[in-house]
Design goal:
- The chain is of the alpha+beta class and 497 residues long.
- The chain folds into 3 domains: 1-48 and 114-227 and 311-366, no CATH class; 50-109 and 228-310, no CATH class; 367-497, no CATH class.
- 62% of the residues lie in helices and 8% in strands.
- It has helices spanning 5-34, 37-45, 54-66, 119-127, 135-156, 160-164, 172-186, 188-201, 203-206, 208-214, 218-226, 247-256, 313-326, 332-361, 368-398, 406-427, 430-462, 465-496, and strands spanning 74-78, 88-92, 97-101, 261-269, 277-284, 293-298, 304-306.
- Strands 3-2-1-4-5-6-7 form a 7-stranded antiparallel beta sheet, with helices on one face.
- It starts with a helix and ends with a helix.
């Protein structure tokens, strides 16, 4: 019998979600955490000092770089901000790249933990730890699938108003079904923006033939055509001594920029040559785009050279979508709103997979072995990934700050906890595996809170609101795990009696 259009959309919605549901859950979970990646990084570094004034930061960093020798090819100063980014310097010589965290009061390296911090969630969000093995392609395919599931879901749930105001609580599955419909309605604009912008950001990966067809050197030449270009310094290439201070350059930058532009980074290319230049980058906190405003100066004389050339329209559109995707211009309230939207979208994905299993379990003709496999994968992913994130935090707090390659141990804690979750769900019955993983989650949350207690109290006393806020979130997660463990333990005891 030929299906009507809506029935076809229902089937497309069902199996598009099933095809990429587990991968989408991991992407949306880590992407949601990425809205507070700077704050998480600050908390994981263990630093509880507030950023100093910009001039003091730049002076400390610049004096530190001047001591690193004359064979440096490039310097970079990253400015600390109110979101928890640290003051750091990077330089590159003939041998390798170097990096140090600093304080505004001292030119000595700051004693903070070496960690990937919140950047781990950002990179996992679009590479899936498969940077060299097609991770970006998988993430792009997942974004396309999510858009298909969203548009087909609109045809599936035709009664938007009724679905939005219906939330049955008679049984757990009734609640999940109605919450799934409400979540889908609430997150429609958010999911469209996130998935569409993700595809545009990496459009060169998904449609490479356009650049290959119209440009001799493919995407590289196309990128050069539409990207801004820094002005050149037409001087004889000879040895030179860099400026002793960047103060006059900072004063000039403040005069050129409006009050909404905040200094983000200072880059010095070829600091010991007469052709060297200083690039001062600022972020316009009111702009949609993620592009920085740049001013170029001579590293020898401090003379203002100019500003970059204007970008092409296509690159500007891409940068605006990039800014929307990562919440570039979001203030705290908008960031929390996006975090809430991401959380609801993550629940939307998980609830859809649970509904798929329950509906087919009620049909005796369906392959129950297949359903059992899907159900186990559901538990492994939906419990395993949040538990792995907690283990990542716990490893950061437990491991010594002086441990070599400690960031690799943090990553190992994430991976092995995820593997443990898969093994527990595979070899234990559903009730036992749920209870075991909930108890492990409670234990890991307790370890995070316990090992962080001293720094948390010090942050409260010192007024470090960023560190204290993340610490409070960890207490909140601990209480949630305690409640879930208690509930599962009661249900398990009732079934055993």
């Amino acid at each position: 019998m030929k299906q009507n259009y809506r029935a076809s959309m229902i089937q497309l919605h069902t199996y598009s979600g099933l095809f990429m549901g587990w991968l989408l859950f991991a992407i949306f979970l880590t992407g949601t955490l990425s809205y507070f990646s700077n704050e998480i990084s600050h908390w994981m570094r263990g630093a509880v000092s507030q950023p100093g004034k910009v001039n003091s930061q730049v002076d400390s960093a610049f004096q530190y770089l001047l001591k690193q020798g004359t064979d440096s090819h490039s310097w970079r100063i990253n400015i600390a901000d109110k979101r928890g980014s640290e003051l750091s310097v990077q330089w590159r010589d003939s041998n390798e790249r170097h990096s140090h965290s600093l304080t505004a009061e001292s030119i000595e390296p700051q004693e903070s933990k070496i960690t990937r911090g919140g950047r781990f969630f950002v990179t996992f969000h679009y590479t899936l730890q498969l940077r060299q093995y097609g991770g970006r392609y998988l993430a792009g395919l997942a974004a396309m699938t999510m858009l298909i599931a969203l548009y087909s879901g609109i045809f599936t749930h035709r009664r938007f108003i009724k679905d939005f105001f219906t939330l049955r609580t008679r049984t757990f599955m009734h609640f999940i079904k109605d919450a799934h419909a409400v979540s889908g309605i609430v997150t429609i604009p958010f999911v469209i923006i996130i998935c569409t912008s993700a595809l545009v950001i990496y459009i060169n990966l998904f449609t490479p033939w356009f650049a290959e067809e119209h440009f001799d050197n493919g995407y590289r030449q196309m990128s050069r055509e539409v990207t801004e270009r820094l002005p050149d310094i037409s001087l004889e290439n000879r040895p030179s001594t860099p400026l002793s201070s960047l103060g006059p350059i900072l004063e000039h930058a403040r005069e050129v920029w409006s009050g909404n532009v905040l200094l983000k980074q200072i880059r010095l290319d070829k600091p010991f040559l007469s052709t060297g230049r200083i690039v001062v980058e600022g972020v316009d906190v009111s702009a949609l785009t993620n592009n920085t405003q740049k001013l170029v100066y001579s590293s020898e004389t401090g003379e203002f050279i100019g500003q970059p050339s204007v970008e092409g329209v296509s690159r500007k559109v891409r940068r605006v979508l990039y800014g929307l995707h990562e919440g570039h211009f979001f203030k705290l309230d908008l960031r929390w709103l996006s975090f809430l939207q991401g959380t609801i979208a993550t629940f939307l994905i998980a609830s859809g997979m649970l509904i798929w299993v329950r509906k087919r379990a009620e049909k005796k003709t369906h392959n129950h072995r297949l359903l059992a496999i899907v159900n186990k994968v559901n538990l492994s992913v939906f419990i395993g990934f949040p538990l792995a994130c907690l283990a990542y935090f716990a490893a950061n707090k437990i491991l010594s700050a002086s441990l070599l390659n400690r960031e690799e141990f943090e990553l190992a804690a994430f991976n092995y906890t995820l593997l443990f979750s898969v093994l527990a769900v595979t070899f234990l019955k559903s009730d036992k595996s749920k209870l075991l993983l909930a108890l492990v989650g409670t234990l890991v949350s307790g370890l995070v809170v316990m090992f962080d207690l001293t720094a948390f109290l010090r942050a409260l006393e010192g007024g470090d609101n960023i560190y204290a806020s993340v610490g409070v979130s960890m207490w909140f997660i601990l209480f949630i795990n305690l409640f879930v463990s208690w509930h599962l333990w009661k249900r398990y005891r009732r079934r055993m009696q």
